[in-house]
Input
Amino acid sequence: IVYPRAGKTILLLPIILLLTYISFSVLKKFIGEDISFDRLTNTENTRAIAWNNLITQAKSKPLTGVGIEESQNSENSWLYGFASYGIGMFGLLTITGVMAIWYELKWLRQRFSIDPYYRPMLDLCMAGIAMYFAGAVLEGYMISRVSASLCFIPIYCSAGAIIVKFALAPDQSYEYDEEEWESYGEELPA
Output
């Protein structure tokens, strides 16, 4: 609904941020629970330490990895897979990423030749896939067993493929079998 009017909606962002800050301040005051924003304002590079640990673990056993329980950090999906399972998992994750980029570029090229009705749905699928792989640089959810991201990525991929397939399909005419329709007791469509 907001898709074509994103320009007007974005003007509400400062108000939403202010209301969110006030809500958290009130929540902290009345509940007494400390909702820390230290990670948002901290300028220390906390990921470099985790990435160095994962690289060190991956170098110690590059073929088989150190195992999921021995790897200490999960701050990057590719490094986490390499440290945990070895070069094979790193290769699988890289192939998955390359295939996703290939499909994203293919869909981006096809996006302008499909009906404008389907474009927002295809944009949603493309954005979900792009966010999945962009977030994998900062979190290890590609290796996790259950996460919301792992549940949504097959939905985005299959929905995008179906949207492109049907949006680019030539107009189809369906022949109706009169006897079959009569057996259902329905009238044939005009």
